[in-house]
Amino acid sequence: MTDTDFWAAVQGVGTVLAAVAAIIALVIAGRQLGEVVASNKLLAASNGAMTESNIALTRPYVVVDFEFSPLVSRSGGTSGASVFVVIKNDGKTPAHNITMATDRPFAALSIPNTDGWRKSLEDLNRMTDGTTVLRFLSNTRPLKYYLDGEELFGEADEPAPSWKVDVRYEDSDGRDFRDTFTLEVEPWRRSIMVADPFVRIGKYIDSVAYEVKALSNTVKSKKLQANACPLLIPATGRR
User: Fold this and answer.
1) How far is CA 203 from CA 64, 78, 159, 200, in A?
2) Closest to 139 measured CA to CA, from 56, 58, 55, 198
């Protein structure tokens, strides 16, 4: 073998080795690129999950629900109940541009007998007609509308009323949220309602104050009667 043939063979082997090295480098680079892509996908998913979690923690939550308030007597017992429809924000930030639509208008089973009651129902139905926009609702000031008394529960096992309310609203960044609430009377028809302890204590205090006032009025009346009666002085005879 001549020198020319030897160096040609060496050059050929070098070319083959360089090609193999290039292929290995491409394979390694491809794997690294795949790992980088996979890592970026995981990071993006993680960032997306974190963003969703932050939104869930800070977003508004508009809720439409019943509120049952027992009527408390002076003795602290309960006698009847009031039924309200409450629109509130249970989230951390204000809700904006709220619209609510019911499947049918809210109505009491008993006949509204005061202007305040009738106007409460009118305002509630206007607010939930699907066209009225409530521009702002914070988590500190809910809307509360009087619907009916305990007559709403019925007297027997007749079908109880229910309403479905579709709610749509936005957060401060313009993100859109939608929820649907079903307000059913039936589950609460025979549920026991316990008065707030502070309300009961207040009624006890009112009762005591009423009794004290009544006693005070009685004492004053007795004094006035005593002052109005003339003194009877026994007559003395002369000797």
Assistant:
1) 30, 11, 35, 5
2) 58
Per DSSP, what are the bridge partners of residue 96? 136, 170
Joined tokens for residue 65: 């629900």
CA–CA separation, 129 and 231 (whole Å): 76
Q: How many residues are listed for the chain in this entry? A: 239
pTM given for the model: 0.61
Q: Which among 134, 142, 127 is positioned nearest to 89, based on CA atoms?
A: 142
pLDDT tens-digit readout, 40-81 = 776 666 666 666 788 888 899 999 999 988 775 555 555 678
Chain position carrying tokens 């001549």: 2
> What's the sign of the alpha-carbon dihedral 137, 139, 141, 142?
positive
Tell me if 67 sits within 8 A of 144, measured CB to CB: yes
